[in-house]
Amino acid sequence: MNHTLIIAEAGVNHNGSVQIAKQLVDKAVEAGVDIIKFQTFKSDKLVSKSAKQADYQQKNIGKKDEGQLAMLRKLELSVEDHYELVQYCKERSIRFWSTAFDMESVEFLRSLQMGLWKIPSGEITNYPYIKKIASFHEQVILSTGMCELSDIEAALNVLIENGTKKENITVLHCNTEYPTPYQDVNLKAMIEIGNKFGVKIGYSDHTKGIEVPIAAVALGATVIEKHFTLDRNMEGPDHKASLEPDELKQMVSSIRNIEQALGTGHKTVSDSERKNIKIARKSIVAAHPIRKGEVLTEENLTVKRPGTGINPMRWNEVVGYIAIKDYQEEDMIVL
């Protein structure tokens, strides 16, 4: 059975508090995810002083006069915070992961030896950033929000030309709106990405609820990434588009069920249903009393449960036979 890699995106939903971050780790463990992911950045290296908040950030935070820089400074995790979280994740037996948003943070995360890199949607046109990550020759997960196919192709070319093997790349279909309207999800585009570029595919979800990531698994996603929070009512840019702990747990459980339900792809009788064949199917029986020596006809035969007698698919073979015994109504025909 395939195992979908489920990433619980804590992101910046810790609001800059390592204690809240640890609570998020606890909830991720309880939900049964594979990885908890944070975000690593130096605000001054990520955005300029003039950078404005996105509409969704202004709406979710309610501080329209606050720029991105002021917002992000409150959401940074220090180097010490990272070390503390890495250790805590080890203690809780869950994989720590983080996305770097600037070159200094890339180098720092490399020192943590995570072995897996996330290129977020906003960095997919950042040539020096992608080239640097490619040079590590490690596993890469690439998000594609706000992308045309040409953007994805360009980023893949940079990765492959600079040392990342194609088989080590997973491309996540994504829509960068928080929350994403259902009509803009375009989930079938995930399949197009896989077919066009010959890469493993997955889905990074920003919709409300859990339906879409579950559907993505049914369509072949090998990785699911989903934001989660302790409480959607907390102040911060991403809380409103995040799952609460019970919802995250339900999503994981549903995905694991879907993984089992997908099966082998070969249609056959399952072990659980085999016992019902004789009960649910039918046999050829006498429609009314038939005397020995009479011809079996479409008029004196019918089909009824159980399926312990002659299969009705042999109808044309049975019609025309001579009855070898007397039959009462509903007696099974024998040849």
For the record, what CATH class of the largest domain applies?
Alpha Beta
Structure class: alpha/beta
What low-confidence regions span 5 or more consecutive residues with pLDDT below 50? none
Q: Note the run of SSEs as H and E.
A: EHEHHHHEHEHEHEHEHEHHHEEH
User: What can be said about the biggest beta sheet?
Assistant: 8 strands, parallel
Approximately how much beta-strand content do the residues carry? Answer: 15-25%
- Amino-to-carboxy terminus distance: 45 Å
Helix content: 25-40%
Average pLDDT: 94
Q: What is the CATH topology descriptor of the largest domain?
A: TIM Barrel
Features:
335 residues, alpha/beta, 8-stranded parallel β-sheet, 14 helices
Provide structural commentary.
The chain is an alpha/beta fold. The protein is elongated. The two termini are 45 Å apart. Helix 1 runs parallel beside helix 5, helix 1 runs parallel beside helix 11 (245-262) and helix 7 (127-134) crosses helix 8. It folds into two domains: 5-262, TIM Barrel, CATH 3.20.20.70; 271-318, no CATH class. It has helices spanning 18-31, 43-46, 55-61, 68-73, 79-91, 103-111, 127-134, 149-161, 189-197, 211-218, 245-262, 271-274, 277-280, 315-318; strands at residues 5-11, 35-40, 95-100, 116-119, 139-143, 169-174, 200-205, 223-227, 283-286, 301-304. The strands form two sheets. The protein has an eight-stranded parallel sheet with strand order 3-2-1-8-7-6-5-4. It has a two-stranded antiparallel ribbon with strand order 9-10. The chain is built from 14 helices and ten strands. Helix content is 36%, strand content 16%.
